[in-house]
Amino acid sequence: MGSFLIRRFIFTPQFLFFSLLISLSFASETISLGNEKPTAYEVLEDFNFPIGLLPKGVVDYNLDSSSGKFSAFLNGSCSFSLEGSYQLKYKNTIKGYISKGKLSSLEGVSVKLWFMWVNIVEVSRRGDDLEFSVGIAGANFPIDNFEECPRCGCGLNCNDQQVRKMRKNPFVSSY
To answer: Is the pTM of this model over 0.90?
Structure first.
């Protein structure tokens, strides 16, 4: 008699309705996980750029996929030195246009050249190099220099870690 009651309980309308609700709940969780917004770093990779173009700490971003217009947001402004010779500053909002292998009309990123700060206005990928332009001049760097994200305040030399030398092209070209 006990097994008859168990079989009868399993096939009641209430049990089937409850089972359907549980199935739908799991299905909606799976669908929502698949629709999560990628990170700003993942978006860079989708456009064939390394994640190290942005410092750690991007809290959000906007991207218009039809025009390529983007904005990335940091918790505040950010500055650091790389290899002791390149000083970089990021405003709390970085804007521009992104396409495969090219960041253009950049706003919010600057580099110190000699005694003055100049805006980096474009970054282009050329094979295994990245070309940075400040308008009338530019410089190339190997892409593997940007495999990791620098941190605000300490760049790539944080927590007394080994200083990683940035490989560079010693020639700055002018356009």
So the answer is: no
Secondary structure (DSSP) of the chain: -HHHHHHHHHTSHHHHHHHHHHHHHHHHHHHHHHTPPPPHHHHHHHTT--GGGS-S-EEEEEE-TTT-EEEEEESS-EEEEETTTEEEEEEEEEEEEEETTEEEEEEEEEEEETTEEEE--EEEEETTEEEEE-SSEEEEEEGGGGSS--BTTTBT--TTPPPPPPP--SPPEE-
Number of domains in the chain: 2
In tens, the pLDDT along 106-139 reads 999 999 988 899 999 999 999 999 999 998 889 9
Beta bridge partners of 96: 70
Residue ranges of the chain with per-residue pLDDT less than 70: 1-35, 83-85, 160-175
Residues 25 and 67 in one domain: no
- Same domain assignment for residues 76 and 161: yes
Token pair recorded at residue 146: 């940007």
Are residues 83 and 18 part of one domain?
Answer: no
Q: Compute the distance between CA of residue 67 and CA of residue 27 in angstroms, rounded to an integer.
A: 33
Domain of 98, CATH number, reads 2.30.240
Q: What domain range is 50 assigned to?
A: 40-174
pLDDT at 114: 84
